């Protein structure tokens, strides 16, 4: 019996990277997992194989959460297949690095649509079912960049800053229905999004300034997600929870 046995979780952007790490840790604690992906079907299929090997039900669902209709349809299909939804992890996100003067309207809108709009519309759809059940946990994967932004991440930081505000507002709006809402402020994690193509991931991420002395792994995020979605954190809502190796204190 794990902490999440009997629970159903939807993790957006779970085909690889942080999303996969989160899905694995949820499965280790007994949760059934719906794996959302938008592009790499091979990666999503690999995630599902890993999860099923852990002894839980796992299915994959293609959807662009940046499109409201697709986000809503994704949640409805998950509920139809699993009969309920207890946990939503809004992990799907993009970070198209660009100089401030090179961020055009299309880039700006797509970044906000996926990162902020996707979190909102998936949450809205899931919360309707959680409200009927009288319980639920929603977790947003935000970033320390919303506080200490990079010069080529203005649009990304703006979308995640909006997510931080979304977290507190949703926690207040949904608390009366038994739904808790929190966010993780993710630090530097060894995934493809943080390094140039074909570059070794860990060796290209500086660690000398981190109190922990290392970059993060997707599983580090996953373990925090388990805590914030389990009964261990039943009196925690509306928080921005740093999982960053100490980055914000440096």
From TrEMBL:
Pfam families for this protein: adh_short_C2 (PF13561)
Repeat keyword on record: no
The keyword Transcription regulation is assigned to this record: no
Annotated keywords: Oxidoreductase
Residue ranges of every copy of the Ketoreductase domain listed in the record: 7-193
EC numbers: 1.1.1.47
Sample GO molecular function, one term: glucose 1-dehydrogenase [NAD(P)+] activity
Transmembrane segments: none
Recorded family membership: Belongs to the short-chain dehydrogenases/reductases (SDR) family.
Protein name per UniProt: Glucose 1-dehydrogenase
């Amino acid at each position: 019996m794990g902490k999440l046995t009997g629970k159903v979780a939807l993790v957006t952007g779970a085909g690889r990277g942080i999303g996969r790490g989160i899905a694995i840790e949820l499965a280790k604690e007994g949760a059934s997992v719906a794996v959302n992906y938008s592009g790499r079907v091979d990666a999503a299929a690999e995630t599902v194989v890993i999860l099923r090997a852990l002894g839980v039900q796992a299915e994959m669902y293609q959807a662009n959460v940046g499109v409201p209709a697709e986000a809503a349809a994704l949640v409805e299909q998950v509920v139809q297949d699993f009969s309920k939804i207890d946990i939503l992890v809004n992990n799907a996100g993009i970070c198209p690095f660009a100089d401030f003067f090179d961020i055009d309207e299309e880039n700006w809108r797509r970044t906000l649509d996926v990162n902020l709009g996707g979190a909102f519309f998936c949450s809205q759809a899931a919360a309707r079912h959680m409200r009927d059940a009288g319980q639920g946990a929603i977790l947003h994967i935000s970033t320390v960049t919303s506080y200490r932004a990079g010069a080529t991440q203005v649009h990304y930081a703006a979308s995640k800053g909006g997510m931080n505000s979304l977290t507190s507002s949703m926690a207040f709006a949904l608390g009366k229905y038994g739904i808790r809402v929190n966010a993780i402020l993710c630090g530097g994690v060894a995934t493809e999004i943080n390094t140039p193509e074909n570059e070794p991931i860990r060796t290209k991420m500086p660690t000398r300034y981190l109190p922990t002395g290392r970059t993060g792994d997707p599983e580090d995020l996953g373990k925090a997600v388990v805590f914030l979605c389990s009964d261990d954190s039943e009196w925690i809502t509306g928080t921005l929870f740093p999982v960053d190796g100490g980055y914000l204190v440096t």
